[in-house]
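Inverse folding, one chain.
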């Protein structure tokens, strides 16, 4: 299985800093330029770029330790202190490799990575070499193990009066792909199909798991037919991008017609390099659960003192924040559908 050239460059982690964080801080942060623009690439001990796919790729046996070097550069016009954090990789909603946030628990490859330092101050135009090691535990099984090394300059949140704020955190991520030698196989399994009510409507969700030891992509045919009928209401051929071994996806497809509650028959025929998988079963479509009742809150008192009462600008601010959030999500989805050419694939 070949792995294409990759250096994952992610602009990620739009974090909603919720209740009672200052809205004025968001506008102040947007008005100023980013403190630094970070580049993270594999290098040698002297900081020279090494030949390769553009990400960290090693072969290592269980119990061994490999020493690597990363070049961290500030391409911006302002100084900044960058943080480096090992992260785990997972499969995105429609496949493709995604990386956890720096605050997420470290459970797999991220636990194998040990940095010489996790904070680096960089002047404009300055580059530093960061040594680190990858220690493969003795219990590691043969196969491809995917993680990443992420670098970012934390976005500051100021303090002022307001209701909420949006913080945009830019990160770069370089994949760390560890191949443990031994017998490997590629295997995907369809575990179930369900009709799920989401805030944006009803979806047919196909649950797929990578139970093998290799990266895998697939095509599959999804069909849904009402019990007692012969003509399917849904028949679509779909593509599943690269799945990380040991991960799962819940692949959503919008319900194609007017919703009629009741029982349906669903089937999935999935094919990937080296194998196939199938699933057949019943799917029940039920009405969505009613929203929870809101307690009656008087328009005077503590809530209105926070600016949510009559004549408040908070609804406008919340609307603007929501629009920015949706616009940025659409931007990320657009980039996700055009993956970078240097991304680990099967």
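Residues assigned per position:
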């Amino acid at each position: 299985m070949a792995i294409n050239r990759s250096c994952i460059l992610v602009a990620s982690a739009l974090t909603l800093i919720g209740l009672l964080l200052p809205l004025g801080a968001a506008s102040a942060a947007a008005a100023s330029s980013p403190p630094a623009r970070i580049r993270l690439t594999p290098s040698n001990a002297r900081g020279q770029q090494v030949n390769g796919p553009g990400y960290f790729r090693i072969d290592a046996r269980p119990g061994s330790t490999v020493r690597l070097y990363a070049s961290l550069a500030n391409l911006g016009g302002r100084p900044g202190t960058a943080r480096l954090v090992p992260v785990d990789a997972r499969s995105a909603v429609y496949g493709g490799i995604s990386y956890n946030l720096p605050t997420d628990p470290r459970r797999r490859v991220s636990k194998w990575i040990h940095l010489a330092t996790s904070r680096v101050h960089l002047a404009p135009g300055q580059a530093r070499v960061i040594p680190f090691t990858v220690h493969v535990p003795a219990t590691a099984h043969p196969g491809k193990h995917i993680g990443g090394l992420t670098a970012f300059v934390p976005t500051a949140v100021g303090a002022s009066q307001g209701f909420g704020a949006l913080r945009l955190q830019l990160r770069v991520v370089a994949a760390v792909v560890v191949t443990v030698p031994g017998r490997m196989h590629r295997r995907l399994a369809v575990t179930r199909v369900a009709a799920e009510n989401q805030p944006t409507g009803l979806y047919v969700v196909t649950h797929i798991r990578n139970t093998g030891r290799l990266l895998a992509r697939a095509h599959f045919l999804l069909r849904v037919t009402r019990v007692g009928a012969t003509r399917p209401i849904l028949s679509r051929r779909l593509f599943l991008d690269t799945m990380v071994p040991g991960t799962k996806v819940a692949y959503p497809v919008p319900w194609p017609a007017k919703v009629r509650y009741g029982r349906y028959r669903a089937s999935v025929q999935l094919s990937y390099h080296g194998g196939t998988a199938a699933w057949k079963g019943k799917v029940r479509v039920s009405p969505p659960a009613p929203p929870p009742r809101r307690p009656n809150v008087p328009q005077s008192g503590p809530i209105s003192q926070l600016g949510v009462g009559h004549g408040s600008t908070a609804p406008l601010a919340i609307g603007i924040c929501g629009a920015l959030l949706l616009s940025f999500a659409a931007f990320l989805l657009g980039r996700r559908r055009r993956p970078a050419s240097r991304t680990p694939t099967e």
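The CA atoms of residues 208 and 249 lie 5 Å apart. The chain has two domains: 14-182, 188-285.
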